[in-house]
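Budget justification note: compute hours in this period were largely spent on complex prediction jobs such as the one shown. Inputs:
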Amino acid sequence: MSVIDIKGLHKSFGDLHILKGMDLTIETGQVVVIIGPSGSGKSTLLRCINFLESPDEGEIRVNGKLIDPKTSNLDKVRQHMGMVFQQFQLFPHKNVLHNITIGPVNVKGVSNKKAVATARELLKKVGLPDREKAWPSQLSGGQKQRVAIARALAMDPDIMLFDEVTSALDPELVNEVLQVMQDLAAGGMTMVIVTHEMGFAREMADQVVMMDDGLIVEQGTPEQIFDNPQEERTQAFLSQLF
Amino acid sequence: MAFFSFIQEYFWGFLMATRLTLLITAVSLVLAVIIGLLFAFLKISRNRAANLIADGYIGLTRGMPLIVQLMFLYFGISKLLVLSPFWAGTLALAFHSGGYVAEILRGAIQNIDSGQTEAARSLGMSRRKTMMLIVLPQAFRRALPPLGNQFIIGLKDSTLVAYLGVPELFSKAMTAAAANYRPFETYLMAGTYYLVLVIVFTWMVNKLEKRLTPDRQEATA
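Corresponding output:
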């Protein structure tokens, strides 16, 4: 079954037409990696999926249900989607543990005790079991991003959206974050990843989606896209990178 | 009369009047924060009418001298509404400071990275919860230094209430100076009282700021 089903998605910011009729289906358990030049609409697509941006046109189905951004309860929709941002966006006035429990406790009404237990488990999972009392300002970028992943996971989402989550990291901190994502994928999590880490994309992706100018240029397995790209645009983009 | 005995004569009287000064200041500032927060919300609202109301309020309270607002509330509207000197003074101070507090809070709220709001919304938090749990606590921390400043101004502005006949510290000083013909000592003494109050107040605001930013304390430790 598809978790996300997008048809004819358009999004503009003023005169800037970013998404120009995107179609994309994301199946349960799939890892979809979106690549493409900057400005191609990758992040906008991701932000439309959880309705941080409201689509101008087109249909988005979540778990088979058509979502209307005007009438649907978007808070409810977002509860089922975790999102991780390039700039971490941990809450600086809350410690690590509280960053992770704040969602379940305040949104889902989970008891504090239960939320803390879950948070500790997640901190173990992301390799930070001893940092629960730390403040975000005391963490490295890689640690912040791992806490951000734990925070999103605490809501027990059906799908995780990653928006260039390693782009703001020092190179030596990238791997610890990718490792966590790899573990997640191995656990069967449905994931949509916007990234410039091509090695990671090749290794992890079930589907690679090449975007340019608001549309999908080409889509396929990592082998198809990286070893045997059919479209000139894809070839040009990849040749710039390698 | 030696300076020491002068102090002795007025020490308690001034101290009692200081209690009234503190009461006026405290009540007006609590009200100013409530009023300020309300108008800050109106100003950042996406409702045009709400924006206009906020702009009107802030423009009027900041645009006229406090003494005019005091006189207006006490004498000006006495046909409509009779306020005691205490309440006319305290309310005028509250409305006046409220305009400044509104702008301080609005600025602080709007300066919180929109990514914070997005992170909260992406967890499924409602607009309201995002404001209460994520944005406001951070905005308040950031607003504390300018708020502290505004509170100090409010404390000193409370002297103007003397012109409504409220027997607070400055009013006591004026009465005393008129009776003893020693304005130098009298106002020096009253000024010292205010100075001590401001010093204590500044200390308290600093203390509160430290308390509200435990992350910064540890991060720099």
